[in-house]
Amino acid sequence: MTIQEQYKTRVRELLSSGTVKMVIGYKAGTTADRRRPLFIRTPEEADQLLLDSACIANLSGYLIAEGLLSDEKRVGIFLKPDGIRTINILAAEAQLNIEQIIVLGFDITGQEVTALQGETAGDFSALIESIKEGAPEALKNPLIDQLEQLNPKERFAYWQAEFSRCIKCYACRQACPMCYCRRCIVDCNQPQWVNTSSHTLGNFEWNIVRAFHLSGRCVGCGNCDRACPVNIPLRLINARMAQEVLGSFDHLAGMSDTQEPVLASFKKDDSETFIL
Amino acid sequence: MTRILLSDKLDNCVARWRKAGLTVIGPVKKETFSSYAVVEKAAEFDLGLVLPDRSIKGLFFPQTEPMLEYTIKKQAIDTKDFAPPSDKRIIFGARPCDASGLAIDDPLFGWDYKDEYWFQRRNETVIVSIACTRADDFCMCTSLKLAPDSTKGSDVLLRPLQNNKGWLVQELTDRGREAFSQIADLLQEGSEPAAPTVVVAEKFNLDACVAWLQNPANFDSSFWKEISMRCIGCASCTFLCPTCHCFDFQDEGDTYSGIRRKNWDSCSFALFTMHTSGHNPRATQSARWRQRIMHKFNYFPGKFSVNSCSGCGRCSRQCPVDMGITETLQAISTLKP
Predict the structure, then answer these.
(1) Lesser CB count within 10 Å: N end or C end of chain B?
(2) Range of the domain at B17
(3) Which residues of B are less than 8 Å from A35 in CB distance?
(4) Is the confidence at residue A276, as pLDDT, over 70?
């Protein structure tokens, strides 16, 4: 039986036994290479489920849709390791009760999809913690290295050109499971803290504010990068910040559901004499 | 006999138009992203694109535009209006869906207040469209009763020759004739056949959809919640759309001096309809998606007798969660009115 069929069976069982009220997965999209999010509420709907190497979107943002988990019923969701790390962070930041989430874990290597054994986020802890060891290597990106070689003025020019395409559609924010604020800083208009215009200054303000808010929280799932309709390489910014946080604080986001948020916690023996 | 523009004369045309003081614009692909951009040479054009990632809209209705500047002094308040800058332009290689989008928005920008920014740019811009010989899975102009060789909104329509060496010229407006009179000697008479335009299959029955949308009982249909469940509420669809035209005014600066700007806004955003009281009449994403569809295919045609969609398909093509107008209208066409 293929992994897809195994998981279809599992989803039907979870729903027919009443273990979960819904499973969030993937189905076919408009074109052969596209996948759509799928919300499965009956065992029959599981027929539409698709699981293959094109299922790369991190679906965990749907878990914190208003009201979904407020009835305390369980929800199943297809997650890769980056998605499991995401729900760990959401739990650590008190955005969801991780006991309510049944994880249908999988991983993709090249074209191959493998099933991950476990049911709740905690069951994957050994796998998740092992990611940290390889993180310095995994976060490497030749383009980041190239940008590091530039002087600040040249680097500024690079990002100015990239951000010049930004149209402030906020697809990056909306696609990001970490951007869950009920009212984003750019939507606060009394006073207007951040320029909403998509001119040079406004585009810098937005993208830099977002980069800082994601430092130590981004798992690098790539949702923002893929969602950007003008193809700004947002992933580079977040990966670079993740490198910085790993190097400075030995912190990789999403290792467990009790991990302290690195930029929102302090220790008495911190070397700094101030709190930002 | 028809007049023909040969591809190898295009660079001369660009030079001629530039010399005549026109800014020449056309589809340009830079690395991973394409848009209508200013060019100096014909070689910069990428005329093989199905259509650029960004629509033509921003050239007439920019994403952000200064309206006025104010300075408050002890005894006086100075204000300075930003007149729309004069810039005579020619857009070469527009897609008919993009050109149609402009024509669709003309009545909107002129019905109560004549938006001088929009109309000055419209009047100063010659649009030379090229009929499509290629389409992708998202193109849907025929479903909107338009066509890959629609002339709507264009000043000149070019039809690619079958031998791929140029285009048949069809001048449509005085503006187009004037621009092409400047290159008259670069054109030639000919009778080569045009390449067939691409066949774009009809994806939904528009009349059936409109009938369903016009039935007030369907405003509260559970359909809206189902179809928009995966919508993440970004404005990618509205901002890439050649006809979405909503905007917001923003004052930037402080009490003593600042600038008032007109920025794109989107019905996808919760803030779009948020009242100062905190109440939001469109409190859910499904209500916002319903508004977008209703506006395009019910309210807008009710007022201006034309659908606010030219079938370019960008909403679906670039949606992060593979939603869009096509899927929604396909689903609606299967429902009972």
Answers:
(1) N
(2) 2-333
(3) 322
(4) no
